[in-house]
């Protein structure tokens, strides 16, 4: 009996000890300061003007916002969401050349908006949207515009999306993100952003592995931003890959048009005027990057030893040693 009472007292003490320990532990955790938000590159609020929207708001003031009772423009809006070197120019040109669409240009940058507003005496942002979409409305075909995910949020913020009876987002991405990043870095050095640019390169492209990594990260984040913006705003996102587009441009236009319910009868799908720019410099940059990623530039099992960096003339395809 005595042993039983001693055991009960011991258990009671143990329960009190565990209770005090539990309160102290919980107290420590409840007193921890809240975690600071991490800058992960993803949007924390979609419905806001953003950088270009800020410039438009400063120029138009309250006239940047469109009245909720404004008349519909009457044709569908197709937003082409992209990140640089994803094939957006190729897709935009193919859709325009089909004759079944108008637009698909970068007309939402605030500098372009302000220039057109002053040239054509446009008093508000609604007048600007009606101005750039007028050719599509006259032809009775969808109007397209190229936009970043931030600019899509800007269109919603100012009430532009309400002007159109239907809004879809074509989201073009590149499966080969490494090739995209290398292409971006080379174009940024040479300032030759299109195969239609025949001027000599402004500078020689220089290999920079860290810059390539940074562009890859930004391209991946841009894709996530588009997905989040479309889901938040309830917009239909139509994925398009650069590889699909480059392999068969007419077939890609037909697939997109079928999803958008846009008839192509009477329209001729022409081969694109734009051509692939990647050449030997791109291949050498890729080879060097993968070799460094493998951990050795001298013993890569798949890609061998990188050779000296060479410049490629996009117009002739001729190679000549680089001075870098």
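Q: What amino acid sequence fits the structure above?
A:
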């Amino acid at each position: 009996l005595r042993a039983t009472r001693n055991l009960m007292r011991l258990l009671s003490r143990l329960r009190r000890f565990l209770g005090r320990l539990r309160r102290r532990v919980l107290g420590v955790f409840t007193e921890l300061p809240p975690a600071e938000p991490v800058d992960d590159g993803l949007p924390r609020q979609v419905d806001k003007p953003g950088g270009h929207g800020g410039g438009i708001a400063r120029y138009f003031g309250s006239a940047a916002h469109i009245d909720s009772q404004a008349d519909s423009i009457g044709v569908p809006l197709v937003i082409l969401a992209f990140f640089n070197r994803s094939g957006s120019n190729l897709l935009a040109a193919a859709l325009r050349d089909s004759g079944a669409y108008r637009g698909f240009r970068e007309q939402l940058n605030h500098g372009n908006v302000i220039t057109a507003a002053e040239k054509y005496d446009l008093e508000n942002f609604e007048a600007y949207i009606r101005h750039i979409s007028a050719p599509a409305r006259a032809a009775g075909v969808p109007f397209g515009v190229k936009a970043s995910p931030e600019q899509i949020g800007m269109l919603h913020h100012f009430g532009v999306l309400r002007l159109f009876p239907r809004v879809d987002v074509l989201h073009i991405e590149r499966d080969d993100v490494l090739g995209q990043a290398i292409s971006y870095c080379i174009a940024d050095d040479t300032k030759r952003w299109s195969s239609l640019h025949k001027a000599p390169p402004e500078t020689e492209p220089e290999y920079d592995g860290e810059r390539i990594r940074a562009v890859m990260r930004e391209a991946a984040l841009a894709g996530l931003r588009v997905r989040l913006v479309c889901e938040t705003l309830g917009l239909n996102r139509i994925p398009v890959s650069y590889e699909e587009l480059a392999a068969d441009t007419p077939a890609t236009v037909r697939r997109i048009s079928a999803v958008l319910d846009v008839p192509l009868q009477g329209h001729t799908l022409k081969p694109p005027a734009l051509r692939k720019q990647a050449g030997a410099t791109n291949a050498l940059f890729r080879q060097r990057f993968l070799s460094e990623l493998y951990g050795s530039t001298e013993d890569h099992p798949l890609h061998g030893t990188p050779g000296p960096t060479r410049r490629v003339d996009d117009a002739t395809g001729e190679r000549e040693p680089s001075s870098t």
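Q: And what stands out in the fold?
A: The longest helix spans residues 2-30.
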